[in-house]
Amino acid sequence: MTLLTPKKRIPSRFAHLLAITDPSFRIGMIGRRSSPTGAWSNGHVTFFLTLVMVLATAWLALRLTSVDESHTLSSFDGASETSANVALIETGGSHEEVTAALFYAIASVPGVYTSMYLALPRFGIENVYAWIRRRYKLSPYSVSPLFLFQSKEIAPPDLIVLTTCEHDIFAADTALDHQFVAGSERQSLVCVLHHVDRFEAIEPRLRRWARANRLRFVTLSSHTAQALRQEATRVAHDIYDPVHIDEFPPVFPAPLDPNPPPTDRLSIAIQGNFEDSRRDYLKTLLQFERMMEELPEPIVSRMQFILAGHGKEVGVPGKIMPYVSVNFSLDFIPYYNLLHESFALIPAFADEGYYKTKASSSVAASFIANTPILGSDRLIESYGYLSRDSMWHEEDVAESEMTAVYELLRRHFDDQGMEKSSWKVAVTEKKQALRTRALELMERNARLMRQIILREGS
Known about the structure:
It contains 16 helices and 15 strands. It folds into three domains: about 20-50, no CATH class; about 80-250, Rossmann fold (3-Layer(aba) Sandwich); about 265-440, Glycogen Phosphorylase B (Rossmann fold, 3-Layer(aba) Sandwich). It is α/β, with parallel strands linked by helices. Helix 9 links the parallel strand 7 (about 215-220) and strand 8. The strands form four sheets. The protein has a seven-stranded parallel β-sheet with strand order 4-3-2-5-6-7-8, sandwiched between helices. Strands 12-10-9-13 form a four-stranded parallel β-sheet. Strands 1-11 form a two-stranded antiparallel sheet.
């Protein structure tokens, strides 16, 4: 088994595409001197080439920025504009994607100003914020160091959102104490809880917010929402039963290449921290090795297993090294475009807690990267925002995820490993269904944030 040392793979697709729209390139194509004998003919050629390049450039620019227009601020057309200041806090430096999903939903509400106080923005997440705001014409925002939220000089925000509540409630304790006293009775605290089993440890610091009717819980999946309700009732039902608990799938639009280069690769992927306590890399890679031994050679030659994340080194069995691509600490834009190349995302959960008390980033990542996740009914039961149409639903997952991948491939390839016409149709349909579902979830998230900001139904 070989240990792969960290490296970065930066796809150059966007750089290549944007390069051909550079003015100097167009001048090079159409600015050469004509010979006297062919001036008339060359003039027509020059005009034709100019027209083609202008049209191609306009088309390319449109394609690179085009996203389904149904998912823009037009969903709030006709809604009255509010005036609210929201403080979005992240003190752990580890949940940028949840922060991005919250930012998108909050800034979709007209008239809201979002002040993000972030401990450690990583992997170019600021570029994602800027792209989202520009592409969807969202309400304005700012990104500031965390210590500025601790200052008593800032005006009390109307809403405080703790992105990682179980961490932020301690790290921002002094500032939250000041805000509770200085803020108005309509100021609210949103506690986004990732690990329900940590609720009892943070509950004493939330109690006064709950008693003042200024607290709201948000979880990242349906199973964690249910588990939190049970835990809050057990700890202090008289205090927490009236407190809302909302499900918020952490999905946001990412700048994916709308026209990726053609490839015959058959890629699957695992994303997230390279920690064995989160995902069972060794077991999954060994299963992948056995699957490759069973597949026909034409399929084997096209297979690629993408591992994308950050953390420690990953052990890869030597026999499958040529088929495994390990990508450490990519910036978010190339990271999601890399995942987008895959036809399936593999959860590879190493912890039963991902079905019971905490939410996995892999499920939301499938929507962000537009790559269907592989799973069974158990995954749908825990992550209620999933549907069979928007994932690869395989009951064989319970036995082995690679067995499920094997069965999926064999349905769409013949015994000699030749691709059937059904394969591209199946992948296209899954990705289209996934995109449609992602738009629905983001719309729902935006409406939830509008309701919370305006304190509707509280």
